[in-house]
Write a structure and sequence with these properties.
Strands 7, 8, 9, 10 and 11 form a five-stranded mixed sheet that branches. A four-stranded mixed sheet has the order 4-3-6-5. Strands 1-2 form a two-stranded antiparallel ribbon. The chain has two domains: 77 residues, Translation initiation factor 3 (IF-3), N-terminal domain (Ubiquitin-like (UB roll), Roll); 83 residues, 2-Layer Sandwich (Translation Initiation Factor IF3), CATH 3.30.110. The chain has 181 residues and is an alpha+beta fold. It contains four helices and eleven strands; from the N terminus they run ββββαββαβαβαβββ.
Length: 181
Amino acid sequence: MREEGVVENRRFRINQFIRVPEVRLIDADGSQVGVVKTAQALAMAQAKDLDLVEISPQANPPVCKIVNFSKFRYEMEKKEKEARKKQKVYQVKEVRIRPRIGEHDLEVKIKHAREFIEEGNKVQLTAMFSGREMQHKDLGIKIMDRIKDSLSDVAEPEGRTSSMGTRVFLTLSPKKQTTNK
């Protein structure tokens, strides 16, 4: 007999580890057998030289399937790997500016932010203040608005401009692409 199976943090009880009195059984070919005693289901699986695997333990009664557990585990791992491959991973890139930034320097920062967004990353704009600049946070917010307007063709803001201590933040994310077919 085999031990209890594990597939990526999800445990499946198999064969003698299924300890409920009766189960809803699915045969090896995918047809529903119905509700049967666990001992009878286990005997059916052993007669076919396969395993009895608990697919859905939350159901009442639990759903079990007669399958080759090694093949079942391989298929589940394959599905999970495919799901991870399809996930979109966003990276947050930061562009820092000062309120007294020069015109050309600001254009360079906007160009970098545009490149990050076109790569599919989110961009966090951070305006940093020090000393007497703290009294003129409105200058930093105006610069943020200017950057937001110049990137409006490729990015949209996530929320509003927020302030924390000596910094003002704004996060921009890539616009959703609409395809017409």
